[in-house]
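Late entry, evening session. Most of the bench is empty. Finally got around to the prediction I had been postponing all week. Sequence below, unchanged from the version circulated by S.P.
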Amino acid sequence: MKFIFVIIGLLVWSSMALAETRYIVDQATLPMRSGQSTAHKIIAMLPSGMAVEVLEQSDAGYSRIRTPNGKEGWILSRYLMSTPAARDRLARAELELAKLNTLKQGKKAVEIERDRLRSARDKLQKELDQIRITASNAVQIGKENRALKSTAAAAKQELESLRQQTRDIRNGAQKRWFMLGGGAILLGILLGLVLPRMNVRRKSQWGGY
């Protein structure tokens, strides 16, 4: 009894060991039959390039396979390849080439965008430097303006002081001229009073001789 189980286990193991992926040869369609001869019923027509799982190989040149949808049957082993069909490889290569071209185009677009961003960054940096220079000049101009305002205020104050001095001088001069004029008038009045008396005395003196 144990010997039977061992044989069954070996058969299962050998069947699993043979399970590998193969591809239908690059032809239109090929029949998968229920047995290992052309007399057996065709279960399905398999298109070229289909990936199938090989479950068992016989000495009669047939292989028992399983399709992706789970059907099992027999097909001539010479119709199986270890690599995909040339048509599928070509389609896959074309797809990879298209992806590569897309990546190249994407890379080129990224490089263009990178260059644009670098140019924009350089332009902004120049503008920032100019703003900094302008701001520095503005600070310097502000300092100069404040200094000029201070100087102007001092000059205005000095001018006002000079004007006040000029007014004081004019007022003093007017006062002096007024005093001189008044003195001259007073002197004239005194002379007008004194001189006639002096003449009378002289006449009286001359008359006494």
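Two things to note before I forget:
The domain at 2-84 is CATH 2.30.30.40 (SH3 type barrels.).
The two ends are 208 Å apart (CA to CA).
Will write this up properly tomorrow.
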